[in-house]
Write a structure and sequence with these properties.
This protein has eleven helices and eight strands. The chain is an alpha/beta fold. A six-stranded mixed β-sheet has the order 1-7-8-6-5-4. A two-stranded antiparallel sheet has the order 2-3. The longest helix has 18 residues. It is globular, with a radius of gyration of 18 Å. Bound molecules: zinc ion. The site of zinc ion has 6 residues, from strand 1, helix 4 and helix 5. This is DUF1570 domain-containing protein.
Length: about 270
């Protein structure tokens, strides 16, 4: 379990959209041609092409969660998850991961796991750690959402990835953000979606913004059918390329008493 404050600095998961052309080469996935040089272990799990320097099959949880995440997103968000290929590049040791990232993505700051999407398929990079399963769910959630929607507002992309990084347990996902969210709700602090929408780039997403984004996704999905409908219709409109406007406006209109409802939900 990690403390709130260290998520971004030491363990955080960076979602990057790199918009330049070019081919990765030399023992790397060639995203332009969807071919890959041979890795010691390669496998196809649904739409995920796995490339790794260790036997991933020895970790059945990785295989199982990759198989279930797509269905989990589809069922929860009620949008189509497009079967676009996604490359997963996994390393047994942090040092190999770091060496690889420094070689091919020298300008990208160190993160324990990364989602990178260029013009080709999305790529997820990670190394074995005690957080690897969470990292993979977080980053592959980004990959699946960005494969399926024309764009995802930054804060919502992170809020959804945070939400889906915990596997569903019973009816409600337990998450490290629960405690801090409840503590803030006790002090009647309600984050505004509008201020999250104003966050322009990932470097401005701090630990607080991750927690607030998670809390809004969690609240909308679980408070009531009405609140869930607001988020789901927003995502469905996005997928249909129908200009969705700002989610904050929809919440103002459709859940005008959102402040009290947010507090009541997290003070329960
Ligand atoms: Zn992320």
């Amino acid at each position: 379990m990690h403390a709130d404050g260290d998520r971004l600095n030491t363990t955080n998961l960076l979602r990057l959209v790199i918009m330049f052309a070019g081919v990765l080469c030399g023992g790397v996935v060639d995203a332009q041609t969807s071919t890959a040089n041979r890795w010691p272990f390669e496998a196809q799990i649904g739409q995920f092409a796995l490339h790794s320097d260790f036997n991933v099959a020895a970790d059945p949880q990785i295989v199982a969660q990759l198989g279930s995440l797509q269905a989990d997103l589809k069922k929860t968000l009620q949008i189509e998850i497009y079967p676009e290929p996604i490359h997963l590049i996994l390393f047994e040791h942090q040092s190999n991961y770091q060496g690889y990232m420094q070689r091919y993505f020298p300008n990208v700051p160190f993160r324990r796991a990364l989602f990178i999407k260029r013009r080709g398929p999305g790529m997820v990079f990670a190394y074995k750690s005690d957080q690897m399963h969470i990292d993979l769910r977080h980053e592959t959630s980004h990959a699946l959402l960005n494969a399926s929607l024309p764009y995802v507002p930054l804060w919502l992309d992170e809020g959804l990835a945070e939400y889906f990084e915990s596997p569903p347990t019973g009816n409600v996902r337990q998450h490290v953000h629960q405690v801090s969210t409840r503590r803030k709700a006790f002090w009647r602090q309600v984050p505004s979606i509008e201020s999250l929408e104003a966050v322009g780039d990932l470097s401005a997403m701090g630990a607080t913004e991750y927690q607030e984004a998670w809390s809004w996704v969690h609240f909308l999905l679980h408070e009531s059918d009405q609140s869930r409908g607001v988020l789901i219709r927003f995502l469905q409109d996005l997928q249909a390329h129908s200009p969705p406007g700002q989610l904050s406006r929809r919440v103002d209109t459709e859940l005008p008493d959102w402040k009290n409802r947010y507090l009541a939900y997290f003070q329960r």
